[in-house]
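haha ok so turns out i had the wrong file open the whole time. this is the CORRECT one, sorry everyone. sequence first:
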Amino acid sequence: MTKLRHVLPLSLYFGYVLLLSYLILLPFSAANWTVFFPLAILAVIQGTLLTCLFKWNRMKLSNIWVLSIACSLTAFLFFHIPFLPSCLIAVLFTYFSSIGLERRNAAHLWLLFLVSSTVTIFDYLFSGISHRPLLFLILLAELVLLNIFLITENRSENRYLPVLTVAFICTAAILSLIVSILKPFFLWIYGFLFNVLLKNALYVIANAYWVLLNHFVTPEKSMRIKKALQNSNANQKSSDQIMPHIYPQHDYPYWMGLFLTAIVAVVLYLKFRKRNFHLPSAKESVSVTLTERSASFRNKRESKRLLGHLLPPRDPVRKAIFSLQKAAEKAGMGRRTTETLSDWLLRIEQGHPNQDLIHGYHKVRYGHHELSADEKKSFFASVDQVRRMIEASVAMRKKS
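then structure:
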């Protein structure tokens, strides 16, 4: 039972990334849908050999890279998959077998699903794949596997996931219907911009260029060009009577691409040979405590808040400092980019910075703690004191 608990999430993960790899490789394959079966066989081989590497304690990134290249060569030589999709197989297998497996958490998997959704929409709109509606069935299968994986890993924190998934599918269906209705309108806009505006503009430019060239051609130059063309035709007729010697044809771009690919493979092997990675357990990969999750969310919200330098923060303590700095900027006493809060207050208060203000701000901003009632009272009183000092400085400046 314990072994099944570890094997099931890994099987779900590899099934999930197999479908994602299939969506990425689908437009590059000449046979389109039939590429799934050889890709599934290669994925099973990759997963089996990865298990052996794990048992032998050989889980180095260089070994995984060699294993992925072997699967890529198998796809190219035995399954007759073209060269570019075979190289993509090596890259995808390496990523999903190492970096993806190492970061096997909920946030990373949802990011991969977002990538998969983008690829599906792009393939549906722009690729020449037959039976394109089946792409969304693959995407739905990915979503089902993702849900089962997350619920299997941690049931308590994902009990609302099926409801959210159904809501997501309904929303996606409505948006798909809207896009399918508006698709002729977008195609009409594209046709209008290309056929009416761009094509005519290029025609006018080419015509003007041709007229300009004709303007500089004299009758003597025109005669020379005509004689040169006549002589080239005569030489062509005489050369046609002689049987040319046939030399063997070599596909030099193909061999050059193969040579460069081999160099890249060797360089990556040398780079990866010292890289080990940690295979997380089920508990490490998905289970995150509510405290850690809220703290990381708060830090991300603070560091990546939209227009962070223009909009005031939501925290009242930081918002008070924000408005104080804006008032100081209007008064010509703004905080410089290289100044800390202490340096700024030391400059504008002429050597007597308010310690209650600095302590309260640092406790909230960097310590992520709440101020007590007495600390809040002292902090906001200090903010009012500095604000009055700024206003008094502006008033004295106006009088003088």
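Residues 281-309 have pLDDT under 50 and may be disordered.
again sry for the mixup
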